[in-house]
Design brief:
Layout: H1 7-13, H2 44-55, H3 66-76, H4 86-95, H5 102-113, H6 128-136, E1 148-159, E2 171-172, E3 179-180, H7 192-201, E4 208-216, E5 221-225, E6 246-255, E7 260-264, H8 267-270, H9 284-304, H10 322-329, E8 337-342, E9 345-356, E10 361-370, E11 381-384, E12 387-389, H11 392-411, H12 422-435, E13 445-446, E14 460-461
Parallel strand pairs: 5-7, 13-14
Antiparallel strand pairs: 1-4, 1-6, 2-3, 4-5, 6-7, 8-9, 9-10, 10-11, 11-12
């Protein structure tokens, strides 16, 4: 009350008031030792309890100054506070109805041990790296060397010529007769003397292009040297890059002291593995597993496409793969065929013939060879679906030509509709049914997958190779 502080005001500001006293006054009833600490008056009772327990004083002693003596002694020898079990003390306070006071008890012990100690770490000036990331609103994880970034070109960087510039040799274009400045590459000078005036006197030469200046999406300025623009040699950056052009580049160096970055937009750098950023949740093991599976499928596919070259002399036989065979028959007429090696081995051949020229539909049949003289020669007996043939000409005459004729009859049929989507066919059938309710409408469409007959709601056609019937 001496300073006109009421009770509520004192309680609110007690933690910020430091009240020092001399040792002679410490045992006075009007002196509170804890006023010289940052401990709040509401927790004085807990601080006193901690001091008494740490010194093993008897709290029920008749000495009225036992609490004051305990606080004074504990401040002189605070090491004894380390033996207290503050967790058990906090649990006991919770049992009495107080909230969790563990942090408060630890703060009281720290204050009794070292009053008014500043726990803050000593001030350290920011490093160039810390300044860079603070100003750019980036971090080590979000912006680093090897990262691929988007940037916009805002200028062509040039090095101004100096008066003592060595080895300046203007070049003359023999076709146009004009001279070219070796620095800025301007090539419209009719006389050699104008180049020297351009370089020495007028100061109009902007200088040699040394790179391009860009600005990243996060606002950081960057520089791409001429040698880092492309894998091929670039004499003039303006031939490859235009101002305001949006480009993709890779961070190759971060200059923290200048708050800028060096970049590269060479294809080799952009395609390198280090340029692919992966977040912290990227599953490397799963990615490697998927990559191995893709490589295995690719290897298997390449292996399946391989065939053993056969020594068969026939105008319709070709040593080719399935893909090559499709290209051979792409522009051929309906009914044309090719015999080719089978990837199953030398005991088999594959017959490919064109069913529909307009839709480029091909049919593939397996030929089994028997009674072979050697593995490279043609078998004396050839089988297609258990039907025997003596040679390839007989297969064409008895198998391919009849099948081709039957297919052609289907193609000319009035209800044949070529390759169509199922929804389109269903719509046509619905329209026909609406026009003629008493008729059962149908269409014939080709299907390269015979198993689809059981699940599609449209009529499909298949040529029966064995009995050559529709």
């Amino acid at each position: 009350t001496h300073f006109n502080l009421g009770g509520s005001v004192f309680v609110n500001c007690a933690g910020f008031i430091r009240s020092e006293h001399c040792r002679d006054d410490s045992l006075s009833e009007n002196i509170e030792l804890l006023d010289s600490t940052r401990i709040h008056p509401e927790t004085y009772i807990w601080a006193t309890k901690m001091a008494i327990d740490a010194l093993d004083y008897n709290e029920d002693d008749d000495d009225s100054n036992v609490k004051q003596r305990a606080l004074e002694d504990i401040m002189e020898d605070p090491e004894k506070l380390k033996d207290l079990d503050l967790l058990a003390f906090a649990i006991e306070l919770e049992r009495q109805g107080y909230p969790d006071k563990r942090i408060t008890l630890y703060d009281i012990r720290d204050e009794l041990t070292n009053r008014y100690a500043d726990k803050r770490s000593p001030y350290q000036p920011l490093t160039d790296e810390e300044k860079f990331y603070l100003l750019s609103n980036e971090s080590v994880e979000t912006f680093k060397i090897g990262q691929v970034v988007q940037c916009r070109v805002y200028a062509i960087a040039r090095r101004k010529p100096k008066g003592d510039e060595p080895d300046i040799q203007p070049k003359r274009n023999e076709e146009t007769g004009m001279w070219q400045c070796p620095l800025c590459l301007r090539d419209n000078f009719p006389e050699l003397s104008e180049i020297w005036n351009h370089f020495d006197t007028s100061g109009s030469c902007p200088g040699q292009a040394v790179g391009i200046r860009v600005r990243l999406d996060n606002g950081i300025p960057g520089f791409i040297a001429t040698k880092n623009i492309s894998d091929s040699k670039v004499a003039n950056p303006e031939e490859r890059i235009k101002v305001n052009q949006q480009i993709v580049a890779k961070v190759v160096r971060i200059l923290f002291d200048k708050s800028t970055v060096d970049l590269s937009c060479k294809t080799s750098d952009l395609n390198s593995a280090s340029s692919i950023e992966k977040d912290v949740f990227y599953d490397t093991e799963a990615a490697d597993k998927i990559k191995k599976e893709k490589e295995a499928k690719k290897s298997k596919r390449q292996k399946n496409n391989q065939y053993i070259t056969r020594l068969i002399v026939h105008p319709n036989f070709k040593n080719c793969t399935y893909v090559q065979c499709e290209k051979f028959l792409q522009n051929e007429q309906q009914g044309q065929c090719i015999f080719r090696p089978s990837r199953k081995g030398t005991q088999f051949l594959t017959l490919t013939w064109k069913v529909d020229q307009q839709n480029n539909i091909l049919a593939h049949d397996e030929i089994v060879e028997e009674e072979k003289d050697n593995q490279f020669s043609l078998g004396k007996t050839l089988k297609i679906h258990d039907e025997e043939y003596e040679d390839l000409d007989e297969i064409i005459a008895r198998y391919v030509e009849p099948m081709s004729k039957n297919a052609l009859d289907i193609l000319k049929f009035k209800y044949y509709q070529g390759v169509m989507e199922e929804e389109t066919v269903s719509k046509l059938l619905g329209n026909d049914k609406a026009l003629t309710p008493n008729r059962i409408p149908y269409y014939i469409t080709p299907s390269q997958n015979t198993s689809s007959m059981k699940r599609r709601r449209r009529t499909l056609w298949i040529i029966n190779e064995r009995d050559q019937k529709l």
